[in-house]
Amino acid sequence: MTNKTHSMVSEKKLLYRVQAHKDAEAFGRLYDTYIEKIYRFVYVKISNHTDAEDITHDVFLKVWQYLTQNPQKRIASVSGLFYTTARNTIVDVYRKRAKQQVVPIEDGYGVPEECRMQKIDTKMEVETILVHVKKLKEEYQDIILLRYIEGYSLKEAAQILDKKYTHTRVLLHRAMKKLQEIISV
Amino acid sequence: MTPRELQQQLKDLRKTHSPINPDASFVAQSKKTLLARISSTKEHAAPAYSLGEKLYIIGRLLVSQKTARMVRVTALMCMVVTTTVAGWTAGVSASSKSMPGDALYSVKLATEKTQIMVASATGDKETETQLHLESAKRRTTELHQMDKEPKKVKKVVARLKKSVASANETFKELKAQDSEKAKVVAKEVTQKTEDISKTLKAVVVDTAQDAREVTHTPDEKQEELVLTKEVVEIRHDIDLAELSAIAVLDSEDAKDVLEDRVEDMIEDAQEVKEAFDLVAEQVTSTSTAAVASSTVGITEEDAQTQEVVTTSTPAEGTVSEDGSLQDAEQEEVGDTEELSLEDMEEVAEQIDESIERMQEIAEEVQQLLDEGSIDAAIEKTKDVQEITQETDDRVLEVQEQIIEEEQKEQREDVQEGESEPVEAQEGVEEAEQPQEHATDTQEHSHENQDREHSDTDPIEIEDDVEPVAEVVSLEPEREEI
Questions:
Q1: Percent of chain B at pLDDT above 90?
Q2: A3 within domain boundaries
Q3: Distance (Å, whole) CA A31 – CA B22
């Protein structure tokens, strides 16, 4: 059994324990697996550490509630569930803030304030890439994040994004092409 | 920047000290808070799942949605196919035991026809011959086991006839096409034809026994006889088919089968003779019974008359009249009996002669077989076969004559039955004669009696209804006495 398959089976076992037994410990292990991934996903979209932390915390709480309230619900992909919940939570936050007429967290294309403060060259280089990534449209951002930052295979990325494999491959190709265009400008 | 460099930079974003990663303190704190919160909710509802539910949940978790959908579709298709196939198989299987008149009987016939059609379409004469024989065998078994309802029996007999003819024809074609294959099939053909022949024999024997044990009307007997004739005819066809198959067999096999067949044929002829003797015996006993029943009928009538007569002086004429009637009846029955028995004796002699002839031919057949002349032996066996057929035909003819005789008697009985009230009235009239002591009435009644003595034709008796009616009108006077 490959590592990937082993981790998938183990994830399914944890999912069963959460759904069938409301096992907090099992959920804790899922938390350990996904916390950084979800945080990065949220941070790329929000660009604010505090908000990203709040949203990430909310995401895990919502997933727990969803799993325990729907014990017989078939979960095709655990990672897909976390990312989808994260995407929806971000959307909810934006909507809420739009209603409250609060100034957006950031313009979405600007460099995060904290990043600007860091003067280390390597970090600057990385942050510049991030700035460019943020200039892409959302689905391009998602596929680049999943494929290159999180290291998912195209198949896994397609499953998380709930898209067809071929479509995901085309999407990644276009996203990378666009990113290169932005960088070269 | 090359795509590879770009990809590398994107991968570097995940490095530990990248601002894109969460703080370790946040990760730990968030987990602590989350677990504290969810642990408190755990207490509230922890449903106890049954084993089945747990298995269901595990199944749902471990099997992906896509796989589950495929499995579901496949399972559904399998179920549909299985149900269809199982339904058809069960139907066909159940229908294999169905009998004519059953709901599934048509399925049975359709299955047989389909099999034959497929074999015929592929030009497989070998299988086709066997299938025709199988059909014939099934029809024969049905004929043996079914209720002998004439309409159904007729249909089965017609189908059997067709199957036998088709089997014969297909086997001939096979012989012409491929003699080696025909040789292989011939052995099975002889086996199956023998089985069919034996079952048909059982059908004939059972029908004959049934006819002896259960009272049938002459018309019913006539119908049965027609069917028996057809069955006997089919049996001869089957026997000829067997002989034709024997001709294809290896000499050793042919010799064994032929010896058995000749023996069977002689045994059959002897059984036919025994059966014929039984029929003859029955005819004799029926005739005796007829005499007895007439006697009983007359005695009862006589007794009634005597009972009434006890009140007065017995009339000589009445007694003498009864006596003469009885004699007439006995004479009439005696004539019929004599005629039937003569026929019977003649046929019995013919059968005996046939059996002797068959035994002679059987010896010749044996001699030819010993010499290795299989073809000549088969030809001789055909002679035995012909004699058997003639014997059967003769016996059936006699049976037909007997039935015709019975039908004739029945018709006469019906005619007599129509005139029966007249006779009853005449009986009353006879009884009233002593009561009357009136010379006019006595004379009148004597005239009637005289007429009755002279009247052998029932139609003429009917003409005498009016005078009798006059006598009946005297009955209240008798009651006054």
A1: 0
A2: yes
A3: 13
Q: In chain A, how many domains are there?
A: 1
Distance, in Å, from the CA atom of B479 to the CA atom of B481, rounded to the nearest integer, reads 5
* Cβ–Cβ below 8 Å for B9 and A125: yes
Q: Which residue segment(s) compose the domain that A55 sits in?
A: 1-105
**Interface check B29 vs A, CB under 8 A:** no
ipTM of the complex: 0.79
Average pLDDT, chain B: 71
Among A74, A124, A179, the residue to mutate for chain B (most B Cβ within 10 A): A74
Tokens of A21: 């037994």
CA-based nearest distance B105→chain A, Å: 50
pLDDT tens for each residue of B104-143 = 888 888 888 898 989 888 888 888 888 998 899 889 888 8
CB B385 within 8 A of CB B239: yes
| DSSP secondary structure letter of residue A145 | I
B/e letters for B251-266, b = 16+ CB within 10 Å, e = fewer, are eebbbebbbebbebbb
- Contact across the interface for B38 and A20, Cβ inside 8 Å: no
Chain centroid to CA A39: 7
Note which residues in 27-66 of chain A have CB less than 8 A from chain B: 27-28, 31-32, 35-36, 39-40, 43-44, 49, 52-53, 56-57, 60-61, 64
- Cα A63-A67-A71 angle, rounded to 5 deg: 175
Test B38 with A24 for CB contact under 8 angstroms: yes
Q: Which residue of A has its CA nearest to B32?
A: A28
- CA nearest to B329, candidates B285, B290, B284, B282: B290
Give A128's Cβ-side CA count (13 Å radius).
13
Question: Residue A47 falls within a domain, yes or no?
Answer: yes
The CB-based long-range contact list for B336-344 (8 Å cut-off, 24+ gap) reads: B336/B287, B336/B405, B336/B409, B337/B284, B337/B287, B337/B288, B340/B283, B340/B287, B340/B401, B340/B402, B340/B405, B341/B280, B341/B283, B341/B284, B343/B398, B343/B401, B344/B276, B344/B280, B344/B283, B344/B398
Q: Which of A40, A114, A176 sits opposite B6 (nearest CB)?
A: A176
Give the closest-approach CA distance of B70 to chain A in angstroms: 14
- Against a cut of 0.80, is the pTM above it? no
Domain assignment of residue A176, yes or no: no
Q: In terms of CA atoms, which chain B residue is nearest residue A22? A: B42
| Residue A75 belongs to a domain | yes
Instruction: List CB contacts (< 8 A) between A75 and chain B.
Output: 61
Residues for chain B: how many in total?
A: 481
pLDDT digits (tens, 9 = 90+) for A154-176: 988 998 888 999 999 999 999 99
Does the distance separating the beta carbons of B3 and A118 come in below 8 Å? no
Q: Residue B383 to residues A36, B45, B367: CA-CA distances in angstroms?
A: 105, 97, 15
The domain spanning residue A52 has which CATH number?
Answer: 1.10.1740.10
